[in-house]
Fold these 4 entries.
Entry 1:
Amino acid sequence: MNRNRVPDNPPPCQEHTGCRSPEPGISGDRFAQRPRRMRRTPALRRLAAQTRVHPHQLIYPIFVGLGRGQCQELDSLPGQSRWSPDTLAAEAARAWEAGVQAILLFGVPDGKDDTGTEAATPKGPVQQAVRELKRQLPELVVMTDVCLCAYTGHGHCGVVGKDGEVLNDPTVDLLARVALSHAEAGADLVAPSDMMDGRVGAIRKALDAGGFTGTGIMAYSAKYASAFYGPFREAVDSAPQFGDRRSYQMDPANRKEALREALLDADEGADIIMVKPALPYLDVIADLQERLDRPIAAYSVSGEYAMIKAAAGRGWMDERAAALESLTSIARAGADLIITYYAVEAARWLNE
Ligand SMILES: [Zn+2]
């Protein structure tokens, strides 16, 4: 039975003598309850606001490739670019000035192979960028995406077996090596996004064994097999060349499974638990906020950003209002941190 269902004929009030009506909010003096009073002026609305988004909650996802002097705008993500390690520092400084304290790096390598070897090289785009950022902006929180899909020719997030299956355990070993190379470069947190079983524990173990006990893990714990990743895959050229990712990413139909994944990651040592995407999974964010004892992040993905950008570009929606409403909704659902392509713009809007 739905617990929220109101009985068809509410029983008359037993507790209060003189209570004339069983309907809440209507007294003998016409309307005693007037919620609109607290919405009357902007100052009253601000006083009563239960959710506030602050720039310090926002994480800015950035794409970085090799080379020098690069800043190439991405067709599928208007307003976002692919940077090289040297130009990235200036972009991160721009974000820092707006109040965004954390960035999440995605590498776009030159070469790909079957096992994504390039992902763990110290000369890779992410490793170079982390070193450059830590040199120029030591206070900036640098997070790095840990996965293989941008580095494998087949575009899957792991090692592919003979029958096309993505193999869990050999993938976990490679991911631990990638995470360690990011920690060696100076990353504050590594963020495994592959959805292999046991990877958070394996990464924690590898980091500790390497002496990086202070490097944190932000786990993509509830990452759904979503159609909202489309623009991102075009940006980093990581679309699977065969099949799809449903054998490792979560089924959008499942809610309890997210809690299971999150509890496992927490148990294995994750410092931040993430839900991805954000807007279509607000119920999952709310569940994890209630049940987990550590910060919950939500990734408002490329498709969420692109929907607003595209509609605003046609004059169908007010971009700023729609973007801020989305961020507020994600925070209201329970996200402590929000990864968003709107981070810098939103921080500026919030500061006005
Ligand atoms: Zn991946």
Entry 2:
Amino acid sequence: MKPQKSKILSNTPPLTRRDALKLLGSGALVVAAVPFSGCATSHVSRSPSKSVTSIEPFPLSQVRLLDGPFLEAQKRDEAYLLKLEPDRMLHNFRVNAGLQPKAPVYGGWESVRTWADIRAHGHTLGHYLTAASLMYASTGHDEMKRRVDYIIAELKECQVAGKTGLVCAFPDNSAQIDNLVAGRRAVGVPWYTLHKIFAGLRDAYLYCGNKIALEILVKLSDWAGDVTKGMTDDQFQRMLGIEHGGMNEVLADVYAITKDERHLALAEQFCHKAVLTPLSEGRDTLNGLHSNTQIPKFVGFERLHQVTGKPQYHAASEFFWKTVTEKRSFATGGNGDNEHFFPTTDFARHLSSAKTMETCCSHNMLRLTRLLFAENPTAAYGDYYERTLFNTILGSQDPDTGMMTYFQSTRPGYLKLFCTPFDSFWCCTGTGIENHAKYGDSIYFRGRLGGAQEDSLFVNLFIASTLNWKEKGITLRQTTAFPEVGKTRLEITAGSNKKFALHIRHPEWAATASVRVNGRTAESSTHPGSYIVLDRRWAKGDVVEIDMPMTLRVELLPGATDSAAVLYGPIVLVGALGHEVKPGDDLHVNERTIGSVFNESIEVPTFTGRLGDIPAKIKPTGAPLTFKSDGIGKPNDVTLAPYYRMAHQRYNMYWKIADA
Ligand SMILES: [Zn+2]
């Protein structure tokens, strides 16, 4: 029987901005039933959650980074994106379609024997499409769009020549998908890899407006429906025992565009009940599971909740987020050891691993966090987002080469290893190029709380940037040296007499926060982990200054009483232990050998004293975010500096504390 094809392309209406945001998975579609009972004056809001109608981040194109560490990271990422050659990433796509490749294939996970059994060939092209699309939205640089358009035109040629709708770079074309569908043993994680291509096509459409990308995506989705249509639910669920990325999420996105019920049905078929059921019932069955296989499933559940309103999906995602962030994360916000969740009582045993905290896991946890925030804008999501972004994501990039981490090691005295530019192409290289292209996507949100007449503006992150709130005629400039100082400044730089409530996150790490408007104290809060709300008319020249005193503190390793990390505000400080390597010498081809290289033994000091006394024994050195232990280090005191800045030398994150 000839497979039925979607007919949406001819009658897809043009995308409105609000549609685009919804499609980006950020608009909460569910209207909560409980009316908003808050007052409209200045106040501290602890839980706006039950009253929310719709919250969404601003489009990346309306936010621009200003000078600071995030803009620097974005620039390094852009430079790397420009070094990668589309024709090399396209090599195997053309081969599979019977076309002559135009340039040699890249190495690492893209082609080399060591990794062939992952079947990750072509994943980089998918990530690249996403990263370049995000970078275009973040910068407006035409070269990014030009590259996206070129790759899409090439993929179209491949799809037409390949005839089935599938576009892929697997060396055996569809063989492993065929095996999975037939219930035979399969090599690697082909659906995981295909998900990256689906997502890249989606992002080329959403951020660059490339309509051919949508056409290819719909045909690819139809192909996925065709090849799996004979499967029973049981057979499908067995197939989902193999890592399959965010197939449920991206198919929900496709459905949101096409409104074709078959795409929604397929998205729901891609929901793995072995984790959906228990987590939706509040049962944590994550021990021993591969973390980065699970996280994208929950991103997809939350996205499906937005699309379908089914409560089970949200219950699962919300519970998953809570258990991972509250019970399964290290101080930086990262999770897992050797890519797996471990029993929450076993942190101490895993601390010596060099393979803790896969960077992809943080990337995907942040994607989940912003979706959940859109559903329920409570400060806890902003707090986790900040902690994980400032530590694991900013800290994942080599400040010299722009290359990115795979594991972020908690092993005392280890160092960060980064990918090579052309011979690694890890999963974390793929999510890595996306990470630094979208820092503007979660600084500001807007939405109308139930009962409110106007959209509110949420300032969730303290990152130097401008916001162009076009619809309101407001532009806002945030200038800050945070996290070097616990202050930020917002100035309305255009707009007159506009009424809206400004929600400023009072972070969980600051005991107090105070706000001045045009030089006069307007509000102060003693409720960390809440929002300070300023509801008034705003005009050009209005200045809001926020003070959030940062303090040093220690945070115990989960389940331990004698091992703690040192934080200053949300910033994890690590001991700078020296033993430098030259920039470039810590670029590493093979992620599997992380932990079995650079293994010379390094002395790591311990701290002595009562746990509660430690912060007072750590003194500022005068250099930004740099401290030194004072008489508690054994055998010697140590300099403590931000984990995010640490590169090319040995460090220590958790301190053994004697007499604790
Ligand atoms: Zn990874």
Entry 3:
Amino acid sequence: MEGAALLPLFLCQNKCMNNPYKKLSLISLLLALAACAEDAPTEAQSVAESPASQIDLIMLGDYVVSMDSESSVYENGAVAIDDGVILAVGPAKKITDEYSAAETLAGDGRVVMPGLVNGHSHAAMTILRGVADDLALMDWLSNYIFPSEVQFVDSELVRIGTELACWEMIRGGTTTFVDMYYFPDTVAEVVDRCGMRALISSTVIDQRSPDAESAADSIQKGIGFIERWKNKNSRITPIFGPHANYTLNAEQLQATRAAANEHGVGISIHMSESLFELQYSKDKFGATSVEFYESIGFFDGPTIAAHMVWPTEAEIAILAERQVGVIHNPTSNMKIASGISPVAQMLEAGVRVGLGTDGAASNNDLDMWEEMRLAALLQKVDRMDPTVMSASTVLNMATRGGAIAIGLGDTIGSLEAGKRADLIQVAFDDVHHIPTYDVISHLVYVTDEQDVATVVVDGKVLMKDGEMLTIDTARVTVEANALAAKIQAALNERNQ
Ligand SMILES: [Zn+2]
């Protein structure tokens, strides 16, 4: 508005100063100025006459929780969005005076906040949800998950499983996820269609996998995937996903890092997850995981390290210094009994920490609200200190901090002018939100997936008032159940 009001005055000054008479008397100058004043609209006229800027979308809310650096919360707030970008965040009246939107999402009884960032997942494993539970990590991986994957996982399973996962994540308010699975082109095609944002890893593992024969083969295939998807779609970032240091040797891990650096992409990996890994790393490499990775130059490039349950104090310093993005997966760590990650200690040391669900076969859902709640509760009981992890710290890990941890801190994670428009509306009309004294407390300790009403990614509405707009949920349901029936029949046959 200020710009619009100033513009006529600026034109007027030019017009006035273009007087052909070089020497103006005081009187003629005053007369000229008076003429100018007549030409210039009054401020009231200017407001009435200058139409509000036409934009794509306004999202309203009883509260807008921006997660900006000042943790600004606007009561009766709004977010103005155009061409996928946030133009302004502030009081609703100011935004609606300034902008006229093609679509306005009403915000009565709703809280607006950034979309959630799921920093570690294996999306397609929704198809294997519940196939094997209540087992130790290596038993679960070696005797159930890896064999099941080699037998059943193909591009079709990945398509259906990823669609299920995107449906579940959008429904629960997740707008960005970091994925590690097989057939990454298929994952990328699904993400492209459903409208989410994702970092998609091409898995590197030193064993026969559903889409490669060996580590070298998986690196080569990963390079192909990265060349196909780099700079193709601004919502999709292809990366490498070396599995872990117990499924790859030092040379293979170094080769993956070299390929990632050569192609200008990051890496997502499992790191320091279990006591098994700790011992394996000591036996094989003579050092615990983080020190081993540091010793081979693995952190010479963007790294997202999932789990990080067992870092030593010296390793925490390495993670902070090397700006490794650590993803905490409390449910998976509890379910597989991997241990309690020293999240509070890492945050105190300046490590970038985000949150993730891990795959649906070890969680068993993709609910980031549950991860937030468990992240807070686990740290409190572990340290026997209820002050150690506040609701706002946890909310930050699921939004702004998570975005920083996965390397998208400049693009998403908070509601600020210039960032991409990834945001959600959470309905606060369910009984568990009545009454609400503190919105942040409710978002972390009360809200669940079903409270999420509307989801926008890159300015596009993916779910509106609970209705999925980019996924044919009826078709996906039929396909998932049909595929599960085949898997169940084959498992029954194998177990006979
Ligand atoms: Zn994982």
Entry 4:
Amino acid sequence: MKIDNNIEGYDSLGEDHIGTSSNTPLRLDAFKLSNEEKIEIIKDDVRHIMETLGLDLTDDSLNGTPNRVAKMFVKEIFGGLDPNKKPSASTFENKYKYGEMLVEKNITVYSTCEHHLLPIVGKAHVAYISNGTVVGLSKMNRIVDYYAKRPQVQERLTIQIVKELQDVLNTQDVACVIDAKHLCVNSRGIRDIESSTVTSEFGGKFKDKTVRREFLDYIKLDTKF
Ligand SMILES: [Zn+2]
């Protein structure tokens, strides 16, 4: 397996958190191995990292870590790389003839920065205006979660969520705003615990200032139950 990662400037690119594409950069052979095979390989890799750091893997506390991390990578935090986990595209007819925007706000985002493999934690706010098709509300959460569970840059995650909903709903009128903390910024490097990153993508009618304003005003609603 040859991976060309010696391109000059890649290090600084990562440090500046610049993504290179709106599609997750995947190898052509990304799905040749089964998830179980991937876990076995990654297990050895994690063990190697830990041993290189000088840790004694015979210690009871560390013994199970390689297997635990490998399973967590493949099945949980990077599980959204697996196309089989993509939320099903079931939609419904808009029977109520509800023609205004629908906003699903404060969707929890747990993702991983692809430059440092550290957590990104935040909230996504997603909206669409139906042109005859609607989706179940939880579908929007599931789509956010699916694309979040990959090595990510926040800009790409925002775009991927919008594109997926545009496909599913058969309309351009979709928007997404994400406000998130990147632990690679908060806990290391510049170590700014207060800063968060906001990204947005506005499709179709949401490019209109008034529509966009309405969406952003809904996000600001402080819903208490
Ligand atoms: Zn990072």
